[in-house]
Specification:
- The chain has 2 helices and 7 strands, in the order H-H-E-E-E-E-E-E-E.
- It has 126 residues and is of the alpha+beta class.
- The strands form 2 sheets. Strands 6-3-4-7 form a 4-stranded antiparallel beta sheet, with no helix packed on it. A 3-stranded antiparallel beta sheet has the order 1-2-5, with no helix packed on it.
- A hairpin with a 5-residue loop joins strand 3 and strand 4.
- It is globular, with a radius of gyration of 19 Å.
């Protein structure tokens, strides 16, 4: 599932870059042609569901550390990280993947901690 999410993110980034012209290069012979609008592809519903299912807590598997996947793109949020045998704590995370402690046993968004939103990913609290 991690491989699919990585492929999805890479495909989305490439599609977006092509749509705004960031990676597109026009051959010299094409300078006299009319511009053609880029084709932007959307993901099928099954791919969207697979990506959304990866949001939030992801346990450690196959030697990979446990992590929290924050799928929103425009917010930083507080999550509560559960650890054993050490005590739990809160952590500010930004969009994307945040690797957690080796002894993390769970993590979830905590809307009641300081309003749920934060501004400095990496900050921690009790």
């Amino acid at each position: 599932m991690t491989f699919l999410r990585a492929r999805h993110c890479a495909a989305t980034a490439i599609t977006a870059a092509l749509a705004i012209g960031g990676l597109a290069s026009t051959p010299a012979s094409a300078s006299t042609r009319t511009a053609v609008a880029p084709v932007v592809q959307t993901l099928p519903e099954a791919s969207k569901r697979t990506y959304i299912l990866g949001c939030g807590w992801n346990e450690s598997r196959n030697g990979e550390r446990a992590y929290y996947e924050h799928c929103a793109t425009n917010t930083d949020v507080w999550i509560q990280v559960k650890r054993f045998p050490r005590s739990d704590y809160h952590r500010c995370v930004g969009p994307g993947r945040t690797n957690l402690d080796l002894d993390a046993t769970g993590a979830w968004y905590d809307s009641t901690y300081r309003g749920g939103l934060c501004s400095h990913p990496g900050d921690t609290g009790p």
